[in-house]
């Protein structure tokens, strides 16, 4: 029988040399695999000159978790050198995405000398031109898809524009690399904020992204921070906790809050050492996140009339603009089709849309082909946003659906790895975890336990859940797989994942059943 290790290599389509590279010891010096930004020295010098000359510095960010992490990294960096700076987290409802002309005018009027845009700016031509024409130096730290023309900034840090590497990465990662270069050393807290941005912005868990995340997960307990501990609650710091607990809470603020002074609390939360402030803000963040959950649930329930049969799904909801991305993501996961969800902005004349797409359909390229119908657009290959006037919505909808007609989702059904009962053990769980962290472009492996005799299974007292001990501190767990339901089969194949389960201090290796099929 082929070893589980060989089966895992086949699943990930790698060889043993790839595995050795995948699991190599990652440290502060080698995580970036030798990649550098070709404009880094210029950016560092501009900021050092500004600090030496005591110039006024302004940081302009974004309202999502990546943007907030990026601003927090820079603000914290300047704190570390005892230099005061100003910053702004844009208001989704009044500013929209990116540096606007109005905000650029305010920055100029307030006498700033250096403007740094983070997680935006690569297409902010008007605002950057205004700032440059009025004597400001401008740096752009971004990762969004650039146009053929670049903004008139003094220097740009961008994975593609600055020729950093072949793997897309987050603005938080870009900003961290700047901070590392500026400070001359690797700071674990700044790196932790960057690792959160990688997960929150769904960057590929490959190469330098993966390495930084691995390093921070491994080292977090040696460098804990109260703000992160509060957000993750009692969960371990890993990719699952970031994706399920930490990032949604941060994103909830930008989705729902429309008061500028309150938006800045997110950055204060990540850069402050005041324990009382952190506890108060954490309570507020949790309350906003609870509201986000309730609004999203309500919006999903009320969007059942949206047509899901067309090549692309396009719908309008009555709820707040801040949750349209969550709804779009919900539809893409369910139907594997490009999806745009719109909501009216505060003016009542413009529909703001959030788009998500399966791999293989480029959102921004599609927006560009329909730019004559749009007021603004931007984003990544698989996620973006756009604005369209009321009178152009139907024409845009028709055009977008036409572009999606030839698209066929490249997503294939996941091939589950065959696993046998005697392989559900701690040793194999450790082997599987050596392939982690799991996420975008690097999924957690799915397993199938073949030909399990139903009569051998044990259940919870009420007979509603499979709870079967299989020896060696191992068990099968299947929630809402009742004895009554399973009794119709003689043998079943169980599809699921392996995980560590700790209950009252006792640890078990658990095969968590996701679904079952009758054995053929």
Notes on the structure:
By secondary structure, the chain is an alpha/beta fold. Helices cover 40% and strands 18% of the residues. The protein contains 19 helices and 16 strands. It has helices at 4-12, 16-22, 40-52, 65-80, 101-109, 125-133, 171-183, 188-200, 207-219, 226-232, 239-256, 260-263, 265-271, 275-301, 324-335, 363-369, 393-404, 426-433, 483-486; strands spanning 57-60, 86-88, 114-118, 137-141, 155-157, 313-316, 339-344, 350-356, 376-379, 383-389, 417-418, 447-453, 466-471, 474-478, 491-503, 506-518. It has a 6-stranded mixed sheet with strand order 11-12-15-16-14-13. It has a 5-stranded parallel sheet with strand order 2-1-3-4-5, with helices on both faces. α4 links the parallel β1 (57-60) and β2. The longest helix has 27 residues, at 275-301. It is globular and about 80 Å long. The two termini are 21 Å apart.
Which key terms come to mind for this protein?
520 residues; alpha/beta; six-stranded mixed sheet; five-stranded parallel sheet; 40% helix; 19 helices; globular
* Biggest beta-sheet profile: 6 strands, mixed
Number of strands: 16
Q: Low-confidence runs (pLDDT<50, min 5 residues)?
A: none
What would you call the shape? globular
* Radius of gyration over C-alpha positions, nearest whole angstrom: 25 Å
Q: Spatial order of the strands in the main sheet?
A: 11-12-15-16-14-13
Alpha carbon gap, first and last residue: 21 Å
What value does the average pLDDT take? 93
Derived from helix and strand composition plus strand pairing, the structural class reads alpha/beta
| Number of separate helices | 19
Range of strand content: 15-25%
Helix percent reads 40-55%
